[in-house]
Predict the structure.
Amino acid sequence: MRMMAGFLAVWSATCVAQDRVSFKNGNAFDAQVLSLGDANVVLKTAYGEMRVARRELDAIVFGGRVVRIALVSGDRVMGVIAEEGATSMLLATGTGPRRIERQEIVGIDPIARMRFDALGRELPDLPTPVGGRDPVLAYVAEDKDDRPVGDLRADEIKLKIDGTEVPANALRPASPSQLLVLLDASSSMAARKKQVGEALDSFARAVAPATVQIMSFNDDIRLLDSTVMPSKALESLDFKGGSLLLDAVASAVRHAEAPGPGHAIVVVTDGTDTGSGIVPTLAVERLKASDIPCYTIGLLPEGKSGTPAIDANSVDQGALERMANVSGGAYFEKNPRKKDKNPELTTIFIRIADVLAARRAIALDPSRLGPGWHQVEIDTSRKGTKIRYKKEVYIPGAA
């Protein structure tokens, strides 16, 4: 590993691309790896240099030029190019630096990126944002009463990417297929257990044949049995402790491998985060990069007699709205203090099911857009109709 550390010092000096560093506690951010030692990693961040312990790391995704090289011997080597010379090149591989002579090379194929674990071992590539390598824009059309509209034609859609109008071709349904419900199982939710179970049963029936998986969170995060109805799965769940809401969101994104337009996350909570390891900004950014719409439900509490409680503003509405907005989802509220915002929980879930059924996807041609994030605007010429969508799209590509 000392050899790798010396190599990375050379590599960081020749490559300005950012690396993606993720930690076992769920945190992740872009930085430049300056050195990789046996015990510590030195990173260059927007706030200066920082040293972190290797044991805290989950993975490092190097952002340099990644290639797969075919050799005369028939072997193939994948790695990050650190140095290119007239007669040889220096490559970072999962087993350390390797110098390859030009005369050994048959061909060089650029690939997207390379991933290592905390010990420098090569890992499979990470899922690319926006539905893998087939980027799409998913949207929902709604009328003035926020009811889904599913019959818009392509000629009624106005699409702009980075301010330039482009045709909205190949509209197709983005019907729900894999749905993950993040359920707050903290002590304050115990009285709602039956109500939540009944609402989730109705939701599962409404979105069938889509798969509904429940991930509960309190002081722990766990996946519940998805082979039975939700109310049955909740029977073994103890509602206790605090609420690791942000950690649960990060876990949900990691759980959804190679998400497509039919994936969605639904968050149900009556409170705020009480001790997650990941910071709010990073949790939201991770959700944004996943291309998974997130529909959040804030349940404001009631008093013992059914009257609103004094702490009826305990739900972190701002956090739930940000999660929904950056992902193209929506925020729903059950508020006993407001008659127009106090629907039955089952009603909210059925409305989300209707929204998911009405989602449509616009196929994009990545060859017309450069890699990276692009600003999106979607509008419609149909009067009385509005569009709900994710405001940015990511186009994958080599660094």
